[in-house]
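Continuing from yesterday's entry. The apo prediction looked reasonable, so today I'm repeating it with flavin-adenine dinucleotide included to see how the binding region is handled. Same sequence as before; SMILES copied from the compound registry.
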Amino acid sequence: MKRDGFNVSLWQGRPAFIPKYDSLPSERQDVVIVGGGITGISTAIQLQKAGKKCTLIEAQEIGFGTTGGTTAHLNTMMDTTYDEIKKKFNAEAAQKVADIAQSAITLIRSNVKEYGIDCAYSMRTGYLCAKDDTQAKMLDTILESCLEVKLPAQYTGDVPTPTPYVKAISVKDQAQFHPLDYILALAQHFEAIGGRIVHDCRLTEFTEENKLLTIKTSKGEVTADALIFATHIPPGVNVLHFLCAPYRTYAVAVKLKNDNYPDALVYDLDDPYHYFRTQEVDGERYLIAGGEDHKTGHGENTHERFKCLEAYVRKYYDIDHVAYQWSSQYYEPADGLPYIGHLPGNPENVYVATGFGGNGMIYGTASAMILTALITTGHSEYGDLFSPDRTKPMASMGNVIKEGAAVTKDMITGWLSIPKLEEAVELAKGEAKVVKYEGKTIALYKDNNGGLHAVNPACPHIKCSVGWNNTEKSWDCPCHGSRFSYTGELLTGPSTSDLDKIDLKAE
Ligand SMILES: Cc1cc2nc3c(=O)[nH]c(=O)nc-3n(C[C@H](O)[C@H](O)[C@H](O)COP(=O)(O)OP(=O)(O)OC[C@H]3O[C@@H](n4cnc5c(N)ncnc54)[C@H](O)[C@@H]3O)c2cc1C
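Holo prediction written out below.
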């Protein structure tokens, strides 16, 4: 399966999903869902089951986005802790988050059962560990707030990893699974009950007239009564881009020399935190570890992050070899909770689900429940809490763009000479740089065969200058997380178009 990065994740060794249809339906749809990750597919199947006629469109193929590069813990112990939610919102909000997280795990379990999905779904106990007194105090507060929202949490002295700790808590009834096996099976069942999936179909724009939406895509148009952006971050320019900060995070799946694989989900309290879990894939056990997060486009040498992560794992485990290493993107919401519901600044029948942080397996599934309730009944008990309209409208969208990144305005026309470029810019094979050349700013990459690839570094979204991600071999925008291949092809929105290619000639 394809993914939005150069590195191959533990999950990708599956044949790509082949949809039944290659074109959009001519008849009006009840709902068009954009995006074939866990959010889009879970939502599509819920709506179709609720009697809605649905089409899911995906710019690439099912699982291409972060769902193909996740680590798939199913936890009710969320990244934004319950005490933080209580402080920023209130106690009722904390309880609602705990309830919907539990319901999301229950929905995944019932889908696995109902459709007989073989995705190695299994229940696990989660552990959270403090390594010093400061972290121990944080842990006390976390445990107290977990108990307030009725999580089965308690202190433990029995953490099943060799990492040192001074205090730890355990939380029962967490889970794990193979995320692509799960969504591929859901996609199949969605089609089996009458839904339509169209691959290589990118939404480019939409219009609304008398509540009817006309959705324009790279494969033509389709009309619908409702539209859902399950695109991880919505395309185009929206207030949510200024409230969801893009981050990269790193994962490895290693084989151990012994059989010391922990059958648990284990996290520390560092910032960014590390975690361990075990997953069996095709009869082989792997220890998954993750961490080393940074803001997208701000990691100087992204490849180094894997070395740091591996060194961290080696401190505690006897590694035979690193079988997989990959990185992927998530979006951190400004107030700690995701944005699920009406897409601000758009007609009332346009919805979004974004800002999941590191809990998108849970929040993506929760989105399916919330959006299905909103579309079929006009109401969800979680609607207000997660409403994207809880954000205050920005006074001037145009002026809130920079976020510390260079904004580039260059228009690059004509072509450039390869020999002259080679002379002016020293680049090793596999290296990339944003360079100034003849008064122009150019993003230049030399591939492993010595071929040069030049693109305009101005991200089409709002013209921030992209930076090189040397491990995923992509140009990443530090402002809002758009990502492009080294040839400029769009990998991840919110941009809706490629980077401009610059013609190079051998003269
Ligand atoms: C390394 C890592 C580890 C993580 N671990 C966990 C974890 O353990 N537990 C957890 O709960 N969460 C975890 N998360 C978060 C979680 O993986 C994500 O939040 C979740 O996968 C997002 O799913 P999604 O369906 O919303 O988006 P995606 O999976 O990104 O899917 C969006 C899809 O939309 C498509 N698309 C975009 N624009 C368009 C367009 N214009 N037209 C058509 N299609 C379009 C894309 O091609 C893509 O396939 C992790 C994240 C990372 C990066």
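Comparison notes:
- The domain at 415-505 is CATH 2.102.10.10 (Rieske Iron-sulfur Protein).
- Residues 374 and 465 are 38 Å apart (CA to CA).
Will overlay with the apo model tomorrow.
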